Amino acid sequence: MKPINNKAWLLVLPVVLCVAFSAVIPLMTVVNYSVQDILSPEQKVFVGTEWFKTVLRDPELHGALLRQIIFSATVLAIEIPLGIMLALALPAAGWRSSLALVLLAMPLLIPQNVVGTIWQIYGRTDIGLGGVALHALGTEYNYASNSLHAWLTVVVMDVWHWTPLIALLAFAGLRAIPEAYYQAARIDGASRWAVFRYIQLPKMRGVLLIGLLLRFMDSFMIYTEPFVLTGGGPGNATTFLSQYLTQKAVGQFDLGPAAAFSLVYFLIILLACFVFYTLLQQSQSADQKG
Amino acid sequence: MAKIELVGLGHKYPGNADYSLQPQTMTWQDGGAYALLGPSGCGKTTLLNIISGLLIPSEGQVLFDGCDVTRLPTEQRNIAQVFQFPVIYDTMTVFDNLAFPLRNRKLREPEVKSRVQEIAEILDLTGDLKRRAAGLSAEEKQIISLGRGLVRKDVAAVLFDEPLTVIDPHVKWLLRRQLKRIHQQLKLSLIYVTHDQIEALTFADQVVVMYEGQVVQMGTPQDLFETPAHTFVGHFIGSPGMNLLPCQLEGQSIRLGTQTLPIDSALAGKLASIGQPLTLGIRPEFIQLAEDGPTLDAEVLRLEDLGTVKLLTAQLAGQTIKIKLGEHASVNSDRVRLGFTPARTMFYADGRRVA
Amino acid sequence: MKKRYFGLVLYLVFAILPIYWMLNMSLKTNEEITGVFSLWPHQLTFANFRTILTDPAWYGGYINSLIYVGINTVLSVAVALPAAYAFSRYQFLGDKHLFFWLLTNRMSPPAVFLLPFFQLYSSVGLFDTHIAVAMAHMLFNVPLAVWILEGFMSGIPREIDETAYIDGYSFPRFFLRIFIPLIGAGIGVTAFFCFMFSWVELLLARTLTSVNAKPIVAIMTRTVSAAGMDWGVLAAAGVLTIVPGALVIWFVRNYIAKGFAMGRV
Known about the structure:
The complex is a heterotrimer. The model of chain B has no long low-confidence stretch (mean pLDDT 87). Chain B contains 9 helices and 21 strands.
């Protein structure tokens, strides 16, 4: 058991100050805006929960939220199993392992808008390898005009960009399993599937929860990549929450509704993450007991 | 249950020029409790993994009751193995853990149930069957790993790879006693790997001592103590270990530095035929302070009182020698005369016992 | 090649092709890019790279990016170290809540804070400075840094601390001389993740800068929207943004996996 020591606050203080400066003040500003009608910098009217009501009734928000949820669910449903499969296929050690890891991790270190640019080029049907290949296969692929194609392209791009993170996490989890577990499983006559189900998956649970948490948060906040690739279009097929928010706040300069929207958005993520975090804590204490 | 025979068995890991396990032949009797004793890296885990089938040896054969199983996969050998660290399936209950090997072999559920009940009773686990295995203590987990091995019918042997490493010292003996009880109850062949001589000597009927990839002696704890077949066994077993003194044969006697010790003529004849440098080995327990008969003169360095015995450290022919004396013994001068029990005086050449 | 590698190799091809394609384009002339479809450059040219590396408006962006990413990485690790130590060694009033509050900052969409950030940093006179971007990125990097470091520190037995105190070490001396060297690998992994998340971020970096600290990623977006797209230069700029990341991966390749395994799980 860790000793109780409230002086530890002194050690945490720098972090608290740093983060508070960048988090609390802007958050207060957002709250402030969300309850006022800002006609001009000098003229502000308190409107209470008016903006929240407007925002929550906004059909465009509902559309964006729905698209967002479908998008996040889709990419998580692809990236997590795919990442696990990749981790299982990765060689455990040696130069092959190093090479595969480096190649795999590459997309993670590419700036978000460059990711967008890469896929914008790659998917073009005149100069992009991917687009040209799809055309050669006889499809009418065009991400700029077909909503479904645009949406699929954004999903594939996200899978390309972030599956490596899950793969790295799962790989780390796998490497932490002692050899004796596999030997015991062989003695017990366990099938390949049973080894995965009863040894590998439970041992990866912790890292996978982290991966799920990070991927959920980041996919829910996705902005730059689809912005560069499709600009949210065609129509609003790839307009997700962040993009809609930015359009409102910057494009239309509706500060009040945008702020109210921000808070609602933030709360949705917070709630979901609280659930994940609680799960994570539980799994941690279960492991400590064991 | 089965008799295990190793025929010319040796192993080199790929890319290694040296044997990790020297080719050797030996037999492990059915129902015996064997301890495989040796320092880390002596090849005992390699040998164990070859018997269990986790490792295919580079040469030689493994026979179970005369059947060649050298290349048979682990799951078909009916071997149970308990590892250094408890291996349990965290997400399952104790019952499911025990049932796992049976279900993998597609046994019918009623049969699984009765087998698990039976084993749980033997292992005192009946009350815990519904608990989640992750919440158990280390020694309970080790018992479950053992149970997963025992639950199968016709287990040929149970192998233990230093199973008490992570167990608290005060429950170690409890667990060891439980193992012994299970052994007597089920008449299983047990092979128990350890580097702890106390563990080996208290647990096993037969102790197999390994050194540098080779079995140097297989025998009862008494054999190992009274007639070590190798200088390694002499100094590894016993506390303190055997005194090993380089010596020369001179006609009918042994020369140690400037002193000589007469020996009988049969022994002298035997030693004369060796033609290699000799080492005399004698345990501290078999040296006495003597007044008459053939004795050797030694310089007293110190006398320690260890409670029930006194340990005398002396210098003889330039070598340090340890002598165990009774608790009432006293040494009054700085020189002593030592008598070696002839029957317990061993001679070694190139590490191996020659007489 | 074994069967189980087949899928892996297939995926790696899928992962590398888009990057290869950009590299391919960066080595072509614009005429070749738009004129003929070719799998490799037929008229190999380094002109696109030369454009970037000789024009201060371009290469300045790389320098700006590297400066704020560097500041961010150093500051994030520096403040996260003592905090992670506190979380790994002590219980204190509100520790669980504080930890979750830190994590919530990793969860806040940058889009939510764009405008307030702009106003905040403008009002304190930090707008268009490297510090501003570094500070803003700390919002999501510090929580992650604390998280990863805490995992590494929990792997170090507490007896080491106690022994050092008995030997008369003061806390700062113990921390700097004994503890930090012990978690060297952890610091490396943490720095890697801080570098990565700061390097790839665009939205905040673009909002908080205009001229003096404008990052390369923002300069690129302007070129994208310019009339008469200069594909070759755009691709070359993109390729150059991958280089620092690729170098960093190469150096930490053996630690990435470890870093997460020891994370707070």
